[in-house]
Structures are given as C-alpha cells and as structure tokens.
Design goal:
This protein is of the alpha+beta class. The chain contains eight helices and 25 strands.
C-alpha cells in the first residue's frame, strides 16, 4: 500500500513537471514570435492618426484662406474658404467648399484678444467653423457687470463675435466608465495607456493632484493606483499608475454599463460634425456631435484651453471618462453645464495631446480583437460614416477571461523571462523525481539483497 502511494506521488510530480514544460514552452514561443526582426519590442500601442482630406486641404491652403473644416451630414468633409480659387481646389479634391468672410487667422486673433481680457469665471469661447464666428458663452454665475465688460471687448473685436448666455454652470465633472475614488473625489477611468514598461489610467487632471491615491471601493480596501503626473489648469489630464503593475485583461475595453464594453483600436483627432460617444458611471453611455474645437473654458479652478466642445450631456460623476467613436479614442471628460435631463454642453481634453505631453500611448486591440495589438486609426475627416450611422465601436465584455485572451496573456512577449524560469523549474522537478525514484530502487534492492544473503 505504501509503495502504491509512493508511485502515485511520483506520477503526479512527473505530470506536473511535464505540464510546466509545456506551459513554459508556450510562453517562450509566443514571446519570441511577438518580437520584431530587429529585436526591439513590437508595437502594442497607437498614438498617431492619419490626417483627413479636410485637414490636409486646410494645411495646404493656409489659415489666411481657410477657416476650418467639418464633417457634413453625408460624411464628406466640408472646408470653409475665403475665395473662389480656394473653393475650386477644395472641390477638385472631392470635398465640399463653403465660402466665408472671415479667415482662421482673424478668428484666432479674436480668441487671443478674449484671452488677454480680464478673466471671467463661468465663461467659455470657441471658434464655430460652420457659422464663421467666435461664440462667447456665459453661465448663470456671470454677473451682469462682468458680462457687460466682456461684451464691450467682443464689440471691439468685430461683429463676428457672438455673445450667448447659457443655463447652468460650467463646472468640472468631478466624481465617474469605471469609478475610481480618493480623498480628492470620485472620477472615471478614461483609457489605459503605457510608457512601454509601466501601465496607467489616463484620466482628467482636475480629479486630483500628483500623489493622490485611488481606490475601486468606498472603504479604501481595493487600491487601484496613484497619480504620478498631470496638468490642470491649462490642460486637463493626469496619469494614475496601477498599483499592481498592469491593467490586466480587458485593458483595451471601455465600460458602457450593464457589463458591456467597447473595444478601443486606436486614437485620433475629433472633427466638427462627428458623432461621438461618452461613457461615465453616473449617466452611462451618451452620444452627440462635436460642435467646435480648441475651446477655452474658465472654470472656477482655472482656465483650460484646447478642449473639444460637444452637445453630449454629462453629470457630476462622469469626469475623466472616455469619449470615442468607431472604437477610436478621442477625449477625456473635462466639464460643462447642464445635465442629461435638460441637455447641455460638455468639453473634453483631446487624448492625443495628453498622450504626447505625458510620453505614453494607448493599450489597444489587435486585428483579432486581442489586447496588445496596434493598427492605424482611421481619420475622422475622411472615410467617416455619416454622423447618424456612426457607432461606438465593436462590443466586448468588460469582465471574464476566455481561452483566446488567456492564450494572448501567455504568449505576451513580456513572458519570455518567466517562461524560461517555468521551463527550468520543470526540468529540475523532472530530474529530482528521477533521482528520488533511482534512490528508492537502490534502497529496495539493498534490502532485498540483504534479506537473501543475510
């Protein structure tokens, strides 16, 4: 009976060692196969997007002959131009031309004059490409005297500056697609990014200063990570380094509620007229259109410039959450006014600008849908679906590990070292079991020999 138990133990040890050899071989083979020919780490991220026809035409014609571009209702790019010769060039490139009075140089000069004026909290301004105007908005907190002074500044600039009062208050949406909490408040995780070695959450900068510790629960038991870099005001982005060292499975998926998610395949620039989607833990998945770019907002905490303006609604609890379209990451929820009952205006920090400043890039899905791949992002201005036909992107579960994602984890090139260790350990285990069996056989033989010959 004792010998039978020993045989069973030896057999189990050998099977475990053989299994370890197979596992280590899969890890090493996959890791080696994922290395490019020059030996440098293969691309896992994407932080560049191609420029569309509209952007190319604006760049070629210059800011004195153009005044922005946007996506038309049919999905084709529309370019604002100041003369018929430029219009003919735009039409020859397959885009629609709209002749306007004021060039981008004039519109930009107007925004610089507004920025130079005394700061008024609760105001915001954007260049409206489609109306060829600079629109200045003031929320309910702006006093009559301040509004009057700002109106005088606008009138001094010219008749193409339009003044609008708006309901509600321009505030940062502190609070949040997956909530993260700290003593600074509650925010959303935006997108997962990497610097090539470490992995982070990219979220809004106003959520908390460098050193803020974030948790996944209100009791402070499940630590997510710590803010290690950011910018606010001026910009509105920050990096939260994962406490566990990595984002884990589903790093390329953003939550849209109900256990569902959208797979992110790249990053790009937003275009005026583009249909976009925003996710946040307070108000869930919402959609709308980009109404303007390069917006300036004077929050109570400070002024933020270069924002994307949209008519997507948001509420406190949605800060830092992701904005995307067709699986392309576009922005991080910054702030706005209104709510998802009455509607309102919401501003977003452009993702590409934030990543370039921080020296990180997105963790995105590969062509087979597995995280860790990279592919070119489509231009929002060219080849875009008509706004009403645009979708958030490919659906994906937020939780759970299936066979494909488990295999992707095992074959990650970062598992080369661990795979070799598994193989070495398994070989040692096999040698040890063989040695133990040989010693046991020798002992048994000696006992038998002694019994036979006394």
């Amino acid at each position: 009976m004792r010998h039978a138990r020993r045989r069973m133990v030896r057999r189990a040890a050998r099977l475990a060692a053989v299994g370890g050899l197979l596992l280590g071989t899969v890890m090493v083979t996959g890791a080696v196969a994922s290395e490019p020919a020059d030996g440098r780490p293969g691309p896992r991220t994407l932080a560049q997007s191609s420029r569309g026809t509209g952007a190319d035409l604006v760049a070629g014609l210059g800011t004195s002959r153009t005044a922005g571009h946007w996506i038309g209702a049919d999905g084709r790019p529309v370019v604002a131009v100041t003369d018929e010769e430029a219009a003919a060039e735009v039409r020859g490139a397959g885009a629609e031309a709209q002749v306007v009075r004021h060039s981008m140089s004039e519109l930009t000069s107007a925004t610089e004059s507004l920025r130079a004026a005394p700061r008024v909290t609760g105001t915001a301004w954007v260049v409206d490409y489609r109306s060829n105007e600079v629109v200045v908005r003031g929320d309910s907190t702006v006093s009559g005297a301040d509004w009057s002074r700002l109106t005088d500044v606008a009138e001094g600039i010219g008749g193409f500056v339009r003044m609008e009062r708006t309901e509600g208050t321009f505030t940062t949406r502190l609070n949040g697609a997956r909530p993260i909490l700290s003593t600074a408040g509650r925010c959303s995780a935006g997108f997962n990014v990497t610097d090539g070695g470490r992995e982070f959450i990219l979220t809004a900068g106003h959520c908390g200063p460098t050193g803020s510790v974030w948790f996944a629960d209100g009791g402070g038991e499940e630590q997510v990570g710590e803010t290690v870099a950011g910018s606010f005001p001026g910009d509105d982005f920050s990096l939260v380094e994962y406490a566990g060292g990595g984002a884990g499975e589903g790093a390329d998926v953003v939550s849209v509620g109900g256990g569902k998610g959208v797979r992110i395949t790249g990053a790009g620039e937003a275009a005026v007229g583009q249909r976009v989607f925003r996710s946040g833990s307070t108000s869930g998945l919402r959609d709308g259109q980009v109404t303007a770019l390069n917006a300036t907002v004077n929050y109570p905490e400070g002024t933020v410039t270069g924002l994307i303006e949209t008519d997507v609604c948001a509420e406190p609890g949605d800060s830092g959450g992701p904005m995307f379209s067709e699986g392309i990451a576009l922005g991080l929820t910054s702030g706005g006014n209104g709510d998802c009952t009455r509607g309102g205006t919401t501003y977003f920090q452009p993702v590409e600008e934030a990543m370039a400043s921080l020296g990180v890039s997105l963790l995105v899905a590969g062509e087979d849908g597995a995280g860790g791949g990279a592919g070119p992002a489509p231009s929002p201005g060219e080849g875009s679906a008509a706004p009403e036909k645009a979708s958030p992107g490919a659906s994906a579960p937020v939780t759970g590990i299936d066979g494909a994602t488990l295999l992707a984890r095992l074959t990650d090139r970062r598992n080369l070292g661990p795979g070799l260790l598994v193989i070495a350990g398994s070989l040692i285990a096999l040698v040890a079991t063989r040695w133990i069996r040989a010693e046991q056989d020798r002992s048994a033989y000696r006992r038998q020999y002694s019994a036979m010959w006394g």
